[in-house]
Amino acid sequence: xxxxxxxxxxxxxxxxxxxxxxxxxxxxxxxxxxxxxxxxxxxxxxxxxxxxxxxxxxxxxxxxxxxxxxxxxxxxxxxxxxxxxxxxxxxxxxxx
Length: 96
Known about the structure:
This protein has about 100 residues and is of the alpha+beta class. It has a single domain (about 5-95), classed as Trna Endonuclease, Chain: A, domain 1 (3-Layer(aba) Sandwich), CATH 3.40.1350. It has helices spanning about 5-15, 60-70, and strands spanning about 20, 40, 45-55, 80-85, 90-95. β4 (about 80-85) and β5 form a beta hairpin. The radius of gyration is 13 Å and the shape is globular.
């Protein structure tokens, strides 16, 4: 599934929230800190960072984020969203 399709599915899933996605530049990825695809603010105004992927790729993304967390002092919430195409729903994991 293409990233743009995943973004639209996440917008549907988080309906009502203002979501900021990192910009995409042709031939480059512009993730925040090399892993975050975007941010939204929770009900208390705390930034929540997320990584968007397919359900089959969650393990690799989890490993990458956990490695980054082991090297950085970071306390904001991080969520990993993996879209399961067969079930047509997100698998969601809180990593921090």
